[in-house]
Amino acid sequence: MPDLPFRTAAAIAIIAFLLTGIAGVIVVRVVPSAGEEFIRIIQEEVVGKVDAQDPVSLSAFIFANNLQACILLFLGGVTVGLLTLFIIASNGVIIGGIMELVREEKGLLYVAAAILPHGIFEIPSFIISGALGFILGAALLAEWQGGGDMAGTAERHGRTFLLVVVPLVAIAALIEAFITPQIIHLVS
Asked: pTM of the predicted model, to two decimals?
C-alpha cells in the first residue's frame, strides 16, 4: 500500500490549522475572557522563559521550542495522527485568538508585521511536520492492515524532516528574534 500522498496530508494539516484558527478568532469575539487565557498561556510558556532583550538567547529559545513542536507533530503520527491533529488544532485556536486580540488592539498591519517575516518559514515548517505526522499515521494504519511499513515510512520522511523542516525552523527563529522586532517597531 503506498504512502498517503504528501499533498493530501499537507491539505489536511492546512485545513485543520485554518479552521481552528478561525475558531480561535470566533472564540475571542464571543468569549473575550478566553483571549485573556490565551495571553496567559503564551506568557507562561514563552515570554516568561526568555530574555527578549538578548536576540541570541531569544533565537535559541524559539528554535528549540518550535523544533520540539515540529518533532511532536511528526512523531505524533504514531498515535494514528491524533496527537498531530491535537497539536495543530490547539495551536490554531490559540494563534487565531491571539491574532484577533492583537488585531483589535493594534490593527491588521501590526499583526502582519508580527507574523509575516518569520511566519513565511515557521508556518510551512509546522504544516510540513503535520503532513509528515499524518503520513506516518496512515502508514501505521496500513501496517496494521498488513500492507504498510511504518518504520520505512518514518525513515524516508525523517530525511525530509531533517533537510527541510529543521532549516526552516532555524531561519524562522533567527528572523523572529532579529528582524521581526525591528519591523514591528516600524509599524508601532
From this structure: 0.92
